[in-house]
Design goal:
The complex is a heterodimer. In chain A, the strands form two sheets. Chain A has a seven-stranded mixed beta sheet, sandwiched between helices. In chain A, strands 7-9 form a two-stranded antiparallel sheet. In chain A, strand 3 and strand 4 form a beta hairpin. Chain A is of the alpha/beta class. Chain A contains 32 helices and ten strands. In chain A, helix 5 packs across helix 11, helix 9 packs antiparallel against helix 10 and helix 26 crosses helix 27. Chain A folds into four domains: 186 residues, Rossmann fold; 97 residues, Helix Hairpins; 218 residues, no CATH class; 57 residues, no CATH class. Chain B is built from three helices and six strands; from the N terminus they run H-E-E-H-E-E-E-H-E. Chain B has a six-stranded antiparallel beta sheet. Chain B is globular and about 30 Å long. The relative contact order of chain B is 0.28. Classes of the chains: A alpha/beta, B alpha+beta. The interface between A and B is large, with 47 and 43 residues.
């Protein structure tokens, strides 16, 4: 498999959309698109929520996992569509988010960009503004967090800024909605004027670069090179900034001219290195900041306090990222989040479980015995129920993460953990995903995989996605508890703790392995911002949580239902032959013949039976039923697979019964328990109440502690359950990685289990 | 970070440290960012990082002339946190080695 193709560099200029900025089409709804853009942590999302209220919709940009948020805002007669672009510090193709933001601006041509800026950190925020202006997009600056700036002793003269930079500047406070009407009025005015021809906005980059830019711009214009979608000077700048995405596109469109432009850049680079010892991209950044600094000095910004003053946020940081207390508090906070999610989700989970068992009961009474009933109950209701059962956990998890994320603490966790994770080729942000997946035993890989969205780089993100399912999720726990209580009862707690540690070690080592083979590549720089601590807004939290939960629910109705039905069919068909069925019917008749008719009537009619005869009859009937189910399972497709797999699986000590259970475990890991129960003809086994199964296994001559150990190792690391696989596919954007995780994990787990079993057997034989 | 950059920063440190900055005010020294003490303030003199890292560092405002205060280090001493222009930025140590600072 080749290293992750950088598909995320999506399709720049992929679609050529004719410029739709003419004032004539103003009343058409689709032309009322404006974009909201700004630095991460500038309050962009809060402003988006304030402007659109609940009128928003979340999707994904095609081919990438960056969320696409759209909303509507009413201003007078107009319904304005607002697109919330992902946060960006710059428009050079650095992160997925920045590529998406740039592609949108270039290809979709929104009529106006609202540039959200953090007034308390204006200097850096204006860096992005300069790039919008250079792109020639009509821009309005929303000067957010004026209140925070004022508290910090910073005053900003919005009119002066507007006058100097040449675009409207509107002070707003996104959290309270202050300034929102003035902002939308400015937007409306800018929409009306969007068709007007404006003078090209430009910064001087010094003599060398300016003259080179002029020459390159002329060549680009003469050749009509790529510039139907963006200004020629901007393209020339991108060449000087060494922008891989633009240069690659250029080579494809017009190789000759591209070569010419690249040669000019190389010459200039050589020249600049000799004369000033710097690169064009360095000088361009320096000059942009130089421009911003001079702008702010002309009376736009005034500071009253000393810049070195410690703000509240810094004081909090002194405690929360303290060398000694910091990690302890982090552990306590993460553990608290965990407890919160799993404790509070227990109640709604039990409601959902009752709901689905009630539905199952309804289907049981309403439908006639037979395949349809079995399909509805075991295939559809159990399958979808299993998925929906995750919803409360996911909701609370994401609520917790949203709190951590919106308050700014998550960035600190990444900061503190980065050293550990970067050693294994991951990133500080991977820690969240590991913990949620079961790093503290009992999590769930589904929200864990979804939590990797906070990771910026594709390789580290993929390595995290692929290794997070190694953690001991809540569904593996009943299986681990069953096996440890059957074979290692004396030290159960120690064994369970040991398995948690083993999961961490294996996940990190496999991550390292992936990052040095198929996901090889330099690690993403940890150049990131620690945003100031902020109190999250309730609306933001709810919207955040709901969006992610809803995406998950939608998936449950489609792919997951289909796979669930497929698994049901595999464990049901072809069923018993007529003669075998006949045998069980005869057995039943023979049993019934030994009891008095009133006892039979009693057992048939009442759920709760009393009296020794009735109880005995009921038990015998249940035994026959279980034997029939066990035989049917063995002869099903899954059973045949299990039997066929014995040829290989004996290496790790698994027999056909275990194999069937493991096939079933692909649906959900706790199914291993119930399937083992059926395979051992114990009838229905409740995963929470496994004593009879544990006793059976402990007493069985086919089992030994060593076999149990090999099986535990296999269950911990083999293919993730299909809900997780579906999430992996979704989050990685390709079925390839879903299939990879199934195949790789199974082979890996089997090798480990075989090693445990074979080496263990050797040692035992000698000892 | 790639080994190449690490070596490069290693080289830069060896080459640049002893003499650079000597000609200016007599109290000024040049050190790499990693060597700054907590709460120490300095001015960026030069940045040796190129490519994506170099661009990103500059885009976030770390350019020659910018005043930077060492805010602290992570519990495992890597990465470092800096105060720059009213915000806090983090860098891994090997990334911080590409930034040369002038301090008192």
């Amino acid at each position: 498999m080749k290293a992750l193709a950088v598909e995320d560099r999506a399709q720049f200029f992929g679609k050529v959309v004719p410029a739709a900025r003419g004032p004539a089409s103003i009343n058409k709804k689709q032309d009322m698109r404006i974009a909201l853009a700004g630095n991460p942590n500038s309050g962009k999302t809060t402003l988006f929520n304030t402007l659109t209220g609940a009128r928003q919709h979340v999707g994904n940009y095609p081919g990438v996992t960056v969320e696409k948020k759209e909303g509507w805002s009413r201003h007078g007669e107009r319904d304005i569509k607002i697109i919330d672009l992902p946060g960006a510090y710059s428009l050079t193709a650095y992160s997925q988010e920045e590529i998406v933001a740039r592609d949108y601006l270039v290809n979709e041509k929104p009529r106006v960009v609202i540039n959200v800026t953090d007034a308390s950190n204006l200097e850096r925020n204006l860096y992005l503004t300069c790039q919008f202006l250079e792109m020639g997009i009509p821009t309005i600056i929303a000067l957010n967090m004026m209140d925070v700036a004022r508290q910090r002793g910073i005053t900003i003269d919005a009119d002066k800024l507007s006058q100097l930079i040449g675009v409207p500047v509107v002070p707003v406070i996104a959290r309270s909605g202050k300034g929102k009407d003035a902002l939308m009025a400015a937007v409306a005015e800018a929409i009306d004027r969007a068709g007007e021809v404006r003078e090209t906005w430009r910064i001087s980059y010094g003599e060398h670069i300016d003259s080179m830019l002029a020459g390159m711009t002329e060549k680009i214009e003469q050749n009509g090179f790529l510039n139907e979608t963006c200004p020629a000077r901007w393209l020339a700048l991108k060449y000087l900034e060494n922008d891989a995405q633009v240069m690659e596109k250029g080579r494809r469109i017009n190789p000759r001219l591209a070569e010419e432009l690249e040669r000019s850049v190389r010459e200039l680079t050589g020249h600049l290195q000799q004369t000033v010892g710097s690169y064009p991209e360095g000088i361009i950044a320096d000059q942009r900041y130089g421009y911003i600094k001079s702008l702010l000095r002309q009376g736009v910004m005034n500071r009253q306090h000393d810049t070195e003053r410690l703000y509240l946020s810094d004081k909090i940081d002194q405690v929360l990222t303290n060398r000694l207390i910091g990690p302890l508090l982090m552990f306590a906070i993460l553990f608290g989040l965990y407890q919160f999610s799993f404790t509070f989700s227990e109640i709604p989970v039990s409601w959902l479980e009752s709901l689905f068992s009630w539905l199952g009961g309804m289907a049981d009474t309403l439908l006639a015995d037979g395949l349809l009933k079995s399909l509805v109950i075991s295939g559809i209701i159990d399958g979808v129920g299993g998925v929906i059962g995750f919803v409360p956990i996911i909701m609370f998890m994401f609520l917790g993460i949203a709190v951590l994320e919106d308050s700014g603490y998550l960035a600190r966790v990444a900061f503190m953990m980065d050293k550990v994770f970067s050693t294994f080729g991951l990133h500080g942000n991977s820690v969240m995903s590991y913990i949620i997946s079961g790093g503290i035993a009992g999590g769930c890989a589904v929200p864990g995989v979804m939590a990797t969205r906070t990771l910026r780089s594709p390789r580290e993100r993929l390595a995290t996605i692929l290794t997070a399912p190694f953690m001991n999720c809540g569904a593996k726990l009943p299986v681990l508890i069953l096996l440890t209580s059957a074979f290692f009862a004396a030290n159960q707690a120690q064994f369970l703790l040991g398995f948690t540690l083993l999961a961490w070690v294996v996940a990190l080592l496999v991550a390292k392995l992936l990052r040095s083979t198929i996901l090889r590549g330099a690690s993403t720089p940890f150049v990131m911002e620690l945003p100031p601590y902020r109190l999250p807004t309730l609306r933001g939290l709810f919207i955040h949580t709901w969006e992610r939960t809803w995406q998950y629910i939608r998936k449950a109705g489609t792919v997951i239902l289909a796979i669930s039905i497929l698994l049901w069919a595999m464990m049901t068909f072809p069923g018993l032959s007529a003669t075998e069925k006949e045998k069980f019917i005869e057995q039943r008749a023979a049993t019934l013949g030994m009891y008095a008719p009133e006892v039979i009537a009693l057992v048939a009619e009442a759920d709760e039976v009393t009296g020794p005869d009735a109880l005995q009859l009921k038990e015998e009937l249940a035994r026959i039923e279980a034997a029939q189910a066990g035989l049917a399972l063995r002869q099903s497709f899954a059973g045949r697979i299990g039997t066929a797999l014995e040829k290989i699986s004996w290496l790790a000590g698994f027999d056909w019964r275990t194999n069937i259970a493991l096939v079933g475990g692909f649906a959900a890991k706790e199914v291993v328990v119930s399937t083992l129960g059926t395979a051992y003809s114990l009838g229905e086994i409740d995963p929470e109440e496994t004593t009879s199964l544990a006793d059976t296994l402990a007493a069985s001559p086919d089992w030994s502690p060593l076999k149990a150990m090999a099986l535990i190792v296999f269950i911990m690391f083999y293919a993730p359950c299909f809900v997780t696989v579906v999430c992996i596919v979704r989050e990685s954007g390709s079925w390839k990685w879903g299939l990879f995780s199934m195949a790789f994990n199974t082979v890996f787990a089997f090798s480990l289990a075989t090693a445990v079993y074979q080496l263990g057997s050797l040692v035992l034989a000698r000892g | 970070m790639s080994r190449q950059t690490q070596n490069q920063s290693e080289m830069n440190r060896k080459a640049n440290l002893p003499d650079s900055g000597a000609g200016e005010k007599n109290t000024l020294r040049t050190i790499v960012l990693r060597q700054m003490q907590k709460n120490q303030t300095g001015t960026i003199k030069s940045i040796s990082a190129t490519g994506d890292l170099g661009r990103r560092i500059r885009e976030l405002g770390l350019i020659p002339g910018t005043v930077v205060t060492m805010h602290g280090k992570a519990p495992l001493k890597d990465p470092v946190a800096l105060r720059v222009m009213g915000g806090t930025l983090t860098l891994r140590n090997n990334e911080a080695d590409t930034i040369f600072m002038e301090v008192d």
